[in-house]
Design a protein that fits this description.
Elements (H helix, E strand, L loop, with lengths): L1 E5 L4 H12 L3 E6 L8 H9 L4 E4 L5 H10 L4 E4 L6 H6 L1 H21 L4 E7 L22 H19 L4 E7 L1 E3 L18 H10 L5 E4 L11 E2 L1 E3 H16 L6 E6 L5 E2 H12 L5 E4 L8 E2 L4 H7 L7 H17 L1
Parallel strand pairs: 1-2, 1-4, 2-3, 4-5, 5-6, 6-11, 7-10, 8-13, 9-14
Antiparallel strand pairs: 9-12
Bound molecules: UDP-4-deoxy-4-formamido-beta-L-arabinopyranose.
The site of UDP-4-deoxy-4-formamido-beta-L-arabinopyranose (WQD) has 19 residues, from helix 7 and strand 8.
């Protein structure tokens, strides 16, 4: 299919573009480079053997997006372009509701005006907030605890209602758990702008000395080693889930709106991720044990049964793969 990928030179977007090209889809990227580097396009071309078209535009610019959808004869949209820093969303909610919700609505309007009826949406496990139990299923009540999480949940509700009103529109929301790792080529990976917000990039910058030793937030949780449990999903597995979702809606094997958890289904603790990094890469991680971070759920990991049954997708990579690939990418960055 001719697929428009918004945010396609970003971390998850670029990995998904590679998998789409490998699956012989045609890809057009729209990105405004607010949290990405256009140079990634050349690296996508190196890995995938072909260079997708890249158009600089804001998804909220109706005229610009209308032109892209028309000129490029788009048949499907995979939507990544959004802000994703939980802490920043608390400090600047309007930035998040404008970009993640208002501009999302504008994109759906532009798609409707062009009768484009295949849509894969990048949602997040943040819609669950602090889930009472794990593994989390798609029926676990949604109770976001940040404007970021609320923005993703609002988008899901908008998409569900638009799909209900438009039987021809097929929408899928993928709720990502904690995304980690990098492409095994070593030339594409996460490029956190400013200070990283998430555990694995923080581990890596503590190792390189760009950041001070990291603090493990809490060791007194009711978990096997006292530290929080999360579901660390490799970015390449996540990318492949988008291709599976696109294929599924194109053949409309399910109803016209579905939600899927995209995770490994296996919990990993903070200490386990640190010791796995040390074991696989043969490097000590400088860290200290500290107090809990307010708002952290003790455990948040997926039941990924529904994606396996309906999308025919399951994670194949492990935290070992993720820490190896992320470190290989970091070493490539350091050589640049
Ligand atoms: C993971 C674990 C921390 C840093 C958030 C968003 C979620 C998604 C992923 C976008 C927690 C611990 C972390 C540190 C630590 N983003 N930690 N020391 O909070 O699970 O999820 O990012 O979709 O929406 O909510 O990710 O990487 O911040 O933390 O001990 O210096 O690592 O306490 O247990 P989180 P995280």
């Amino acid at each position: 299919m001719r697929v428009l990928v918004t945010g396609g030179v970003g971390f998850i977007g670029s990995h998904t573009v590679i998998e789409l090209l490998k699956a012989t889809h045609e890809v057009i990227i729209v990105d405004n480079f607010s949290n990405s580097d256009p140079e990634v396009l050349g690296r996508i071309a190196t890995v995938a053997g072909q260079k997708p078209q890249l158009i600089e535009a804001n998804i909220g610019n109706h005229a610009a997006m209308d032109k892209v959808l028309k000129d490029k004869h788009i048949e499907a949209v995979i939507h990544f372009a959004a802000y994703k820093a939980v802490g920043e969303s608390v400090a600047d909610p309007l930035k998040y509701y404008r970009n993640n919700v208002a501009d999302f609505v504008s994109l759906l309007e532009t798609m409707a005006a062009n009768n484009i009826n295949n849509f894969v949406f990048s949602s997040s496990a943040a819609v669950y907030g602090n889930p009472p139990t794990s593994p989390v299923t798609e029926d676990t009540p949604c109770a976001p605890t940040s404007p970021y999480g609320w923005s993703k949940y609002m988008d899901e509700i908008v998409l569900k209602d638009v799909c209900s009103a438009t039987p021809a529109l097929k929408g899928v929301a993928l709720r990502y758990f904690n995304v980690v790792g990098a492409h095994d080529s070593g030339i594409i990976g996460e490029l956190p702008k400013g200070t990283p917000q998430n555990l694995l990039p923080i581990i890596i910058q503590a190792v390189t000395g760009k950041l001070p030793p990291l603090t493990v937030f809490g060791t007194d949780y009711d978990t096997p080693d006292g530290t929080c449990l999360r579901d660390y999903i490799h970015v390449v597995d996540l990318a492949r889930a988008h291709v599976a979702a696109l294929d599924t809606i194109a053949n409309q094997k399910t109803g016209n709106y579905s939600v899927y958890n995209i995770g490994t289904g296996k919990p990993t603790s903070v200490i386990e991720l640190i010791t796995t990094f040390e074991k696989i890469n043969g490097i000590k991680v400088p860290y200290t044990l500290g107090n809990r971070r307010p708002g952290d759920p003790m455990a948040c990991y997926a039941s990924a049964q529904k994606a396996r049954q309906e999308l025919g997708w399951q994670a194949t990579k492990t935290p070992e793969d993720a820490v190896r690939d992320a470190w290989r990418w970091q070493q490539h960055l350091q050589q640049k």
